[in-house]
Write a structure and sequence with these properties.
Layout: H1 2-59, H2 65-79, H3 90-99, H4 106-109, H5 113-144
Domain DUF2489: 15-141
Protein name: DUF2489 domain-containing protein
Transmembrane segments: 6-26
Length: 145
């Protein structure tokens, strides 16, 4: 009988130890999930804040029109991948598509003055054509974010 009781005691101890180990593992997973959720939420808040700043700058003409549209479009693509499908936000995609062939950074600086002037004329035409729709879309962004 004493041997049988020892087996029961050993089995019970093993069950308690395994249950404790399972609980410890579960707490680790829960902690990692909570940290991942907090990180994702902080990222979403940061991107949302950045979108608000860009939208406000576009509305108040504190950023060049084309640059503002491109920056908003890129952030929306990272923040909400289906954003370009939203009818009111397609204006940012349209401006981006109309200007994506234009050189940037060092290549822009390497252009002749005449070439830069031609591109700046295109920028002005795009602004005239899309300014009101872009401002309306930026206002909608401000309301949503």
């Amino acid at each position: 009988m004493a041997v049988n009781a020892l087996w029961w005691l050993a089995g019970g101890l093993i069950i308690v130890l395994l249950a404790g180990y399972a609980l410890w593992l579960w707490r680790q997973v829960w902690t990692k999930q909570r940290l991942a959720e907090q990180t994702a939420q902080a990222r979403e808040q940061r991107i949302s804040g950045d979108l608000r700043v860009l939208a406000d700058c576009l509305i108040n003409q504190q950023v060049p029109f084309v640059e503002g549209c491109i920056r908003i479009k890129v952030m929306l693509d990272h923040h909400l991948p289906d954003a370009s499908l939203q009818p009111s936000w397609q204006v940012f995609q349209q401006v981006f598509a109309a200007t994506e062939h234009i050189p940037t950074h060092a290549e822009w600086k390497a252009l002749s003055k005449a070439q830069r002037r031609d591109y700046q004329q295109l920028f002005a035409e795009l602004e005239q054509q899309h300014r009101s729709a872009a401002e309306q879309a930026a206002r909608e962004l401000l309301q949503r974010h």
